[in-house]
Amino acid sequence: MDNFNNNDINNATVDSSMQNIAMQEVNPNANTASQPIYNQPVIPQGAYQPPKKNKFAEILLALVKCAGYIFVWLGVQTAIMLVLSVVVALTNPNLSPTELTDKLLGYSIELTVASNIIALAIYFLIFFIARKSLLKKINIDLPHKLSYAPTAIIGTTGQLVTGLALSMLMMMNLFPQKWIDQLNENSDLVTNANPYLSFFAVVILAPLFEEILCRGLILNTLRKTMPKWCAIVLSSAIFGIIHGNPIQFIYATALGIILGWLYTKFDSIWVPILCHLTFNLASTLLGYLPQTDIASVIIGLLTFASIPIFTLAIIYVNLKSFKKKPIDVSVNQPFIPYQYNNAPEYNASVVRNLENEIEGKNKNSNNKE
């Protein structure tokens, strides 16, 4: 017993532990409650451990946030409409309720422009008060340089494919006449408005605001608590609903799925904005074409040619890897386990060690000189 030293005890302990691990691999049901487990991280004493998360509560909170973003926009629209109604009623006291409604509809584009700009300003204010960055939330980083061309092609050809699909569905009488009338009324509101303001509202402001709302805020919030495609489909349905009529809901939801996929593919808000902008731009330019037989033939040829182009662009973006350049780190930073990222004591010690390492390297370089 006198020759049995501490090293022998340590070796015996290690051998015993290795035997226990080997036995556990052979018999997973073996009782290893009192045996050490070497394949799990050792948590420093007093280190912060985040509480277990309730998935249902996270999803519910995300939905509440999304509803809040939408209610801000709807609240601004309602407030502007009430003020405008009072002003029009006071300046035109002899108008009947129907005439008053028709007159208010004439200001639809102005109402849309004002409500979108004010709602966007409120979003910035909310994030500023919460000491957060809206620009960081929606991912304003520029995408890969090879993303612009296929994105613009998808938006332009997507508009032509959508127009062809809607025409075929209407010819098959699959839409009630009431739905078609609502779509035509919305189109007339845009057509009869000031052309410059209408162009700004449809081609510039609408893609910018709607993508910030539906992709930057809503989709970004949802995809943190649910699978990516569930978040894309749900945010796309919301995108379709806010367009206000059944036919636009159908194709806006389909477009929203493509926009959401592009947003998650490139992690940049500029990609869905560009796709949405080119989609609306193609629609606006087609509306300016003369209603002649030659124009109809040209549009028909472009539409049928757009189907394979649209398909190939989607396939290209899906298969292409758009990786950003790696960040150049001059100092090797230590590994920080995920569960310690929020531990002030642990992070402070890591920073001190990193500072000491840098200071030591500087001293060594000075001594060599």
Describe what this molecule looks like in 3D.
- This protein has 369 residues and is mainly alpha-helical.
- The chain has a domain at 65-319.
- It has helices at 6-26, 55-91, 97-105, 108-129, 134-138, 148-171, 177-191, 195-222, 228-241, 246-266, 270-288, 293-319, 344-368.
- The two termini are 58 Å apart.
What's a concise summary of this model?
With 369 residues, this protein is mainly α. The protein contains 13 helices and no strands. Helix 6 crosses helix 11, helix 8 runs antiparallel to helix 11 and helix 10 packs antiparallel against helix 11.
Low-confidence stretches: 8-17, 32-38, 338-346
| Global outline | globular
Helix content: over 70%
The overall average pLDDT, rounded, is 82
Order of helices and strands: HHHHHHHHHHHHH
What's the multimeric state? single chain
Number of helices: 13
Supply the helix-strand structural class: mainly alpha
- Terminal Cα span: 58 Å
**Major sheet attributes:** none
Count the beta strands: 0
Strand percentage lies at: under 5%
Task: Return Rg in Å.
Answer: 30 Å
